[in-house]
């Protein structure tokens, strides 16, 4: 692995500018802006996920190690021995993984006997941890609000005690909508180095968490490299690795192999794990009349096992033991929707909702152990059926954060499923989904490469932000306004700097008007230099200044026009009221949003 | 211009397969499908916009010429003389446009004295024209329904008598959602040949109408080439050309120059024209406090004119004369939203809605002349404020078809505005918008090239289709179901053939698994050959077959599970009922949709 080339900021106007308070250093990016004609602009600050940079071989500093130690409720222990089987048959043959982790190996930590070390446990005790303080600074809200949201289970702060490198972040619908990027090798392709590069690439562009979905060689060691280099929480689907350990034969899986795999991953530091414990034996026949059956890989593994043995799922049967393990490391459940629809035709069917109902039951059971939970959602859902998913999830899963894959709103556009799913993602996040799992252009077709990862991340950032704006999240629209002001004033460099993807914005601009003067010119390629609509708007502003419309000395409004304006203003007021009534009467999501914003 | 390379279908499994009925030949594409394990699949048929192919120099056959002539209400006349000023100063200097139209020149037609030749006029007389029959076959509905929708103004069938090459299509919210692609040269770049290629390229991928927004050299002649080669209605913004005629100085515009330009374009065959007659003098000061002022080019031209002269808009003042002209050629109004918001900050403000209210008034006035009307809409609108636009447009503009640009739901993603706007487009179309104007990745940054045009068209096709599915448009979801069935059965070639963009789908697939056997293999690159979730689903299906769940001889449902399934089914029923109540009580859009679907 060579020295990283990710060191530079994504734009020369960006810089690392942390919030420093109470001994914490919370990362943010500051964007320098050029002056407006009317005066200078304050720098604009945005959320930052990329974390500190390091040699991949060294790994990131253990930011949270002291905070964890100070609480005095964990102890280190020997942990599982190095087991080449964790890395698959190639590693066993070779006697090593293809590129063993070269950095420091820490002994794993776990809770001392009788203790639970989850953020939910602390929150319920009324304790505001350093992690919660960090999150409060990052989200610009009150630490007590962070604590209370975690305590009631409406938000999670995923951070395994064995992943002290991660910068605390929160997933919950009262906070900024988050996005997840999937990486991971497969039997078909890809290397450890590529996966670490994808991790850094995804977080550089704004991934809030990353899931390692590896199913190929060197699963254990790839994950080690990823965790030691990840400033964001890492999620996995442990059944994938368990399946590799039994040679890909679902029926050979056992609870013992699964549990051992979970402990292996707990010791490494995985922050949340997808567990398909809601796929119960009696639900499987509910899928037979579907157009696309079971499309979740984990769901079909468990369905395969249940069928082969004609037995209830070992995940469901041993769920309490799993909760005890998770509580000892602070691993969060991501309760997997193994029966999610794989096509519009199968959306919102009985199989899907029977599982969701069960997931709700499992959520409560995890909470009995103070284990944090989020709930996974679909998938493929027509636009008009999306909001039902939010409502049932909130009702049945008791407001646990919802984490959806898209959903895709049509099946007919392979190659464009980042878009078909971003439409659904923005819509479902507006309705209360807390985290969106990205979909790349390669969905249904192949494995994403570096460009696909970036496209997926940027697409989901924009969908998440659109939802934050629509929800009226405090401060969200300021970013749009800063961009629009720069656009109106032809501050091209600021427009690039304020973009989610400055490189692409500038490259597209340069294709038509490459010369540097075009970046300070007061026109663009749409209208050309001769005529510019923005300039006319400026003329209007110059002419009318800040005068009120009524003082303009314009010819008196013709009666129909005065009436137009009046009718318009009444209609706007009327809509605002109607909207309020809607909130008051029916829209639970928004009603709760309002309550919270009033509260913090 | 060389022989076209657009002759081949977009996939080898596609073929031209028209509906032939009552002497009409209505284009459709038939897609051959491979067999399922359970038996053969019927070919799948889709809407086809690309039209017949020809040498660009020859132009398309005049499909509608006879139908127009048979009605006996038009006559040919000399028309305006060839005027090099129509093509700008380069043409005047040169003594010719850079590439004069080489095909047949027909004398223009117009209504004989005292006649109106619009489809709305015929519809109101109870006449079902050939154009309406054609549309009914194309949309798979009753011709009388087409007539009644046009008569009441809720749909338009844009087809100038001087553009007999076009295949009739309809824009209205009871029909398939349509999309428009913008092309056109600018002062900065592009040639006649390029524009004709873009037209053919856009219709190949599914553009339902094309707007020629040229502002550079050879405007008249470029448009001639486009019209003679266009199987879809062509729209323009005549004020752009009028502005060129006065050297780009807005204040030098006059009603006479504008009217002459409109007649020039009527004679050529433009099917609909954007006219910003709703930008009235008193509304202009309403924009001064906006973040982005007036961003519509046409709107700012008119605002510039009004300001310079301190006079009411000549478009508004002379609107009735314009209606008379349009009625004589069957040109439809696209009433331009010159005061549309250019940023989230400016969405749904008084300026925007004052104009919309005025547009409603202008709609009624056009209908007095039997002139067809659609209404243009925003722009940039937060996701939660979109539906208000549909509702006010339907109320104030009396259900005239709504035609929106996106809207973009965030301002922060230049380079990805096809996506930010597709999110808004799908949402607004679900709420009743009839046609969506595409946005390409170059929006705000530069002029779209060929790839951008394709990306814009495909993105908008998927958004329009997602909306059709969400609206429950009869038959819309069949396409998704055909794709999903092919996906479940690993019919890879069928998946490509059923894609909006087969080339991209196949290219992405081949990147990971290039060999031909991989296209018949029963696995994909996501899970690899060893384990396949689709295969497990098939095993489940094989095991349970078509048995009802209750007859499966499964272990009795544990009580909580039986309860889960029961609760789930009650919840689903409850949601359906709630959804119905919502329709009954408040959702006018859907309520009307339901009425209509019941009616035809």
TrEMBL record, chains A, B:
Similarity section: Belongs to the ThiC family.
Name assigned to this protein: Phosphomethylpyrimidine synthase
Coiled-coil intervals, chain numbering: none
The keyword Cytoplasm belongs to this UniProt entry's keyword annotation: no
Region (Disordered): 1-24
Cofactors (names): [4Fe-4S] cluster
Co-factor remark: Binds 1 [4Fe-4S] cluster per subunit. The cluster is coordinated with 3 cysteines and an exchangeable S-adenosyl-L-methionine.
Listed GO biological process terms: thiamine biosynthetic process; thiamine diphosphate biosynthetic process
Residues annotated for [4Fe-4S] cluster binding in this entry: 524, 527, 532
Residues that coordinate or bind substrate: 182, 211, 240, 276, 296-298, 337-340, 376, 403
Gene Ontology cellular component annotations, sorted alphabetically: cytosol
Residues given in the record as Zn(2+) binding sites: 380, 444
Function: Catalyzes the synthesis of the hydroxymethylpyrimidine phosphate (HMP-P) moiety of thiamine from aminoimidazole ribotide (AIR) in a radical S-adenosyl-L-methionine (SAM)-dependent reaction.
Basic and acidic residues bias: start-end ranges: 1-12
């Amino acid at each position: 692995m060579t020295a990283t080339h990710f060191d530079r900021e994504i734009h020369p106007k960006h810089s690392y500018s942390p919030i420093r308070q109470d001994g914490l250093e919370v990362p943010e990016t500051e964007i320098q802006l050029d002056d407006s004609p009317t005066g200078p602009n304050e720098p604009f600050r945005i959320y930052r996920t990329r974390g500190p940079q390091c040699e991949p071989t060294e790994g990131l500093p253990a930011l949270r190690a002291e905070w964890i130690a100070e609480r005095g409720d964990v102890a280190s222990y020997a942990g599982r021995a190095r087991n080449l089987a964790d890395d698959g048959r190639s590693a066993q043959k070779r006697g090593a993984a293809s590129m063993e982790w070269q950095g420091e190996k820490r002994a794993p930590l776990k809770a001392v006997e009788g203790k639970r070390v989850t953020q939910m446990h602390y929150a319920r005790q009324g304790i505001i941890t350093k992690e919660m303080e960090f999150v409060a600074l990052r989200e610009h809200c009150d630490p007590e609000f962070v604590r209370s949201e975690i305590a009631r289970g409406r938000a999670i702060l995923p951070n395994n005690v064995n992943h002290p490198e991660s910068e605390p972040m929160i997933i919950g619908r009262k906070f900024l909508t988050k996005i997840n990027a999937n990486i991971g090798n497969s039997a078909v392709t890809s290397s450890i180095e590529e996966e670490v590069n994808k991790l850094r690439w995804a977080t550089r562009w704004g991934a809030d968490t990353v899931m390692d979905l590896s199913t190929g060689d060197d699963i254990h060691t790839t994950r080690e490299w990823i965790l030691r280099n990840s400033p964001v929480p890492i999620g996995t689907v442990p059944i994938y690795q368990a399946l590799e350990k039994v040679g890909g034969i679902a029926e050979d899986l056992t609870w013992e192999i699964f549990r051992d795999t979970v402990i292996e991953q707990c010791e490494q530091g995985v922050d949340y794990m997808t567990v398909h414990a809601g796929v119960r034996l009696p639900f499987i026949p509910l899928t037979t009349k579907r157009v696309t059956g079971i499309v979740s890989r984990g769901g079909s593994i468990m369905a395969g096992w249940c069928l082969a043995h004609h037995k209830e799922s070992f995940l469901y049967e041993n769920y309490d033991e799993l909760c005890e393990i998770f509580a000892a490391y602070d691993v969060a459940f991501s309760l997997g929707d193994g029966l999610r629809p794989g096509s519009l035709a199968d959306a919102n069917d009985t199989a899907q909702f029977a599982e969701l109902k069960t997931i709700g039951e499992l959520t409560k059971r995890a909470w009995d152990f103070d284990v944090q939970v989020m709930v996974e959602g679909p998938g493929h859902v027509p636009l008009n059926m999306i909001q039902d998913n939010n409502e049932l999830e909130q009702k049945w899963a008791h407001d646990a954060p919802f984490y959806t894959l898209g959903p895709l709103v049509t099946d007919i556009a392979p190659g464009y499923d980042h878009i078909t799913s971003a439409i659904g993602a923005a819509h479902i996040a507006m309705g209360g989904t807390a985290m969106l799992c990205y979909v790349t252009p390669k969905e249904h077709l192949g494995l994403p490469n570096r460009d696909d990862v970036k496209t997926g991340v940027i697409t989901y950032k924009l969908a998440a932000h659109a939802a934050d704006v629509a929800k009226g999240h405090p401060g969200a629209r300021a970013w749009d306004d800063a961009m629009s002001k720069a656009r109106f004033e032809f501050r091209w460099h600021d427009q690039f700097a304020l973009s989610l993807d400055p490189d692409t914005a500038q490259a597209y601009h340069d294709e038509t008007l490459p010369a540097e003067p075009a970046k300070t010119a007061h026109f663009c390629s749409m209208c050309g230099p001769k005529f510019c609509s923005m300039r006319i708007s400026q003329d209007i502003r110059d002419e009318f200044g800040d005068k009120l419309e009524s003082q303009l000395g314009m010819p008196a409004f013709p009666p129909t026009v005065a009436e137009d304006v009046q009718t318009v203003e009444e209609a706007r007021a009327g809509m605002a009221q109607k909207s309020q009534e809607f909130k008051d009467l029916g829209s639970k999501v928004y009603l709760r949003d309002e309550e919270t914003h009033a509260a913090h």
